[in-house]
Amino acid sequence: MKAVLQKLGPGLLFAGAAIGVSHLVQSTRAGADFGWGLLWALVLVNLFKYPFFQYGPRYALATNKTLLDGYHRLGKTYLWIYFLLNLGTMFTIQTAVTVVSAGLAAELFGMTTAVYWCVILTVLCFGLLIIGKYQLLDRFIKVIILTLTISSILALGIALANGSQSIPLTQVFPKEGGLLFLIAFLGWMPAPMDISIWHSIWALEKKKSSKNPLTLKNSLFDFNVGYFATVILGACFIGLGAMVMYGSGVSFSSNGTVFAGQLIALYTANLGDAAYGIIAVAAFTTMFSTTITTLDASPRAMAKSTQLLFNTKKDLYLSWMIVLALGTIFIFLFLLSEMGLLVQIATVLSFITAPLYAYLNYRLVRSKHMPKDHQPDKRLQLLSQVGLLALTGFTLGYLISLFYS
Question: What is the pLDDT of residue 376?
């Protein structure tokens, strides 16, 4: 068991970054609003995105370079596009995950308001990353994902056993107001596509810190464990929303603190009040893991991009982390009322840029820089081509709907 756990790392960090707002918030709301009706979206988007996320660690281990190095090889313009997009969304994404974490902290610990918890958590994550760096993340995330997986599957099992109403499995396609929710759901499920870049960076960090050689086989095993954990937990959260809230007339609050209370009540309604503490801690640590992984990953990506774009060898990781932390705190204090609009912009950008990142990742793993024995086989290439067509089709369909609405 210990040997298996030692192989895991970047894949679970991927899961830790992914299993946040998209799962705790959007998947639960999907179940509450549509029952089991959006399972098709969960399955398809995870299937179509799978190869492109996998290409992050595959490219990194094969070439000893990050995807950002690869984008730079393909053309500096691609790297500039990523740099500007990430600069425009990283503060919003960091704020969104921290707000939910703060709401859960306020629900669990009380003591102060969610805004103050936002500042406290940002400072705490910053300090932990300075002290513990990648090694802390690697150890921390294994406990978190295991805790959340067990508690979520248990909660869903009890909800299904105790459910007094039969929720139809009829699949639906949201229209009008529900279309924007579907776009957000697809854009951030299991995560925005650019997290593949983070994964490539973490894979190389794991390789540097690992005592044993990190092989492609081990890296892909690690990725698959993390990826399929996000799929299973996404289905669990849809199920919890469907079994407890669908048809009840109750809707989730947009207020982070109120939502946190509703989310914990969702679990305890099925596991009992005695489990309140366990569930509250599990939910909080899940969002805390997302908060700390995003605070680590975005500065790493921006530091690497800066090195490549401006031809410098300076390690600007700390500088970018300070910028992200201060920018996030600024949004907490002065722009929190605009969070709904900011998150909507970020999710839409994640959705419409997914085909671009998918295309770039696919090009890289089939480029001359990629060793032949590390390139994807024909089945994975076929899935990549189908996935690229599907993601492009989703995006064009959304843009056309905007034009005619």
Answer: 93
CATH no. for residue 118? 1.20.1740.10
Residues 314-360: tens digit of each pLDDT: 989 999 999 999 998 888 887 766 656 666 677 777 778 889 999 99
Convert the pLDDT of each residue in 288-317 to its tens digit.
Answer: 888 888 999 999 999 999 999 999 989 899
Mean local confidence (pLDDT), 205-229 = 81
CA 275/CA 154 separation, integer angstroms: 11
DSSP code per residue over 308-367: HHHT-----HHHHHHHHHHHHHHHHHHSGGGHHHHHHHHHHHHHHHHHHHHHHHHHHHTS
Rounded-to-integer distance, Cα 113 and Cα 106, Å? 6
User: How many domains in the chain?
Assistant: 1
Domain of residue 121 covers 2-404
Exposure of 358 by Cβ count < 10 A (0-12 exposed, 13-18 middle, 19+ buried)? buried
Sequence-separated (6 or more) residues with CB below 8 Å from residue 340: 254
Q: What is the pLDDT of residues 25-41, one digit of tens each?
A: 788 888 888 888 899 99
The contacts of residue 172 (CB under 8 Å, 6+ apart) are: 34, 37, 38
